[in-house]
Amino acid sequence: HMEVSSPGLDRVLKKERDFIRFLGYGVKVNTAKGFAGPRKLNGVLVAYQPDSISIKVEEEIIEIPREQISMVRLRPEE
């Protein structure tokens, strides 16, 4: 039995090259308990720095420190 899935669909972004490759893509971000904002964010990855990422949620740009991110996944395109 072999499961077939689309590579990249719901991919977890971990490495610097992943974040750079998927700039401009839709992402789902789960933040850690210490983050002052929402625990779950859906937006577009607009910037990557070694210590943080920035996502655009509606018309707002939110910068999230890397240590306050528990997971970032690509959002499947609808």
What is this structure, in a nutshell?
The chain has one helix at residues 16-21; strands at residues 26-31, 40-49, 52-57, 60-65, 69-74. It is mainly beta and 78 residues long. The relative contact order is 0.28.
Low-pLDDT runs of 5+ residues are none
CATH topology call: SH3 type barrels
What is the C-alpha radius of gyration, as a whole number of Å?
A: 13 Å
Number of strands: 5
Oligomer: single chain
The helical percent reads under 10%
Mean pLDDT over all positions: 90
N-to-C CA distance? 28 Å
Shape: globular
Kindly give the count of domains.
1
Helix segment tally: 1
Element-level helix/strand string: HEEEEE
Read across the widest sheet, the strand sequence of neighbours is 4-3-2-1-5
Structural class of the secondary elements? Answer: mainly beta
Strand content: 35-45%
CATH classification, class level: Mainly Beta
Topology (SSEs and partners):
Layout: H1 16-21, E1 26-31, E2 40-49, E3 52-57, E4 60-65, E5 69-74
Antiparallel strand pairs: 1-2, 1-5, 2-3, 3-4
Features:
SH3 type barrels, mainly beta, 8% helix, 78 residues, 5-stranded antiparallel sheet, 5 strands, 1 helix
Explain this structure to me?
β3 and β4 form a beta hairpin. With 78 residues, the chain is mainly beta. It starts with 15 loop residues before the first helix and ends with a strand. A 5-stranded antiparallel β-sheet has the order 4-3-2-1-5. The chain is 8% helix and 44% strand. It has a single domain, classed as SH3 type barrels, CATH 2.30.30.100. The protein has 1 helix and 5 strands, in the order αβββββ.
